[in-house]
Amino acid sequence: MAVAAVSAAVAVSACQPGGDTADAGSSPSGASTSAGAGPSSAAPSATASKPSGAKTSTAPSASASPVSRPSGASVTTCAPKALSVTAYQAAVRPSGTGTGAAIVEFTNTSAQSCVLKGYPTVAGAANGSPQHNSPLTVTRTGSSSSVRVAPGGKAWVKLTFVQVQGEGDGYCKSGAQPVVYPTMVIGLPGSGQHQVALNDGQFAECDNTATVTAVTAVKPS
User: Fold this and answer.
1) Could you tell me if 202 and 169 are in contact, meaning their C-beta atoms sit under 8 angstroms apart?
2) Hey, which bits of the chain come out as E strands?
3) Model confidence, pTM
4) What's the chain's Rg over C-alpha atoms?
5) Fewest C-beta in 10 Å: which of 2, 71, 73, 149?
6) If we measure between CA atoms, which residue out of 94, 95, 96 comes closest to residue 171?
7) What phi-psi label fits residue 72: left (phi over 0), alpha (psi between -120 and 50 degrees) or beta?
8) CA dihedral over 120, 142, 83, 162, signed as positive or negative
9) Contact at 8 Å (CB) between 30 and 13?
10) Cα dihedral sign for 92, 95, 96, 100?
């Protein structure tokens, strides 16, 4: 009686494309998956023997699944010190002479992937005074989900304000006085509060309110 055993190893590898959106939405965990062959089985030599010169075949290579969080992977919430935060005026914003809308961009400056999640808190502040701020009333829009951010990757939130109207110092449709803030303090659940200034102006708004999106892996306009 002759015994024939064939084993095959399947190696799985992943290749992650670059770019802001891919970094935030689907970064690899660094883990690889391997599949081992099952136990060998015995069979009569008449059926198990291979003709002379026959070659043993191996299983084809498998492609990595483009999931952002493989089963069993554990990724922690981004720590405040792991983030660099900037802000700039949004291209799509209400008409008027104030800021209208701003994009807040979070960059993971650590060496590990981490998660950003939830809706931001927003408060107006003077330069260098994040503790002495004026919280804005926030209205949430859209759905929320966790965003995994690879090292060097980015995620965003969009803030839309009640726009200042008119020329000069302008006016508010509500009759309130317009307010100008040199900086805003933006907070995210578990990821701390970050004081940011616009890279192209100051925050000018009415009524001390803002409509906010949740963290997104897709850059808003």
Assistant:
1) no
2) 10-13, 34-35, 62-63, 83-89, 101-108, 114-116, 121-125, 133-135, 137-141, 147-149, 154-162, 179-181, 183-188, 192-196, 203-213
3) 0.67
4) 27
5) 71
6) 96
7) left
8) negative
9) no
10) negative
Q: Are 190 and 148 in contact (CB under 8 A)?
A: no
Structure tokens at 209: 């309110």
DSSP 80: G
Query: What stretches in the chain show pLDDT beneath 70?
Result: 1-73
Is 211 in contact with 159 (CB distance < 8 Å)? yes
State the SS3 of 203-219: EEEEEEEEEEECCECCC
- The maximal CA–CA distance of the chain, rounded, in angstroms, is 98
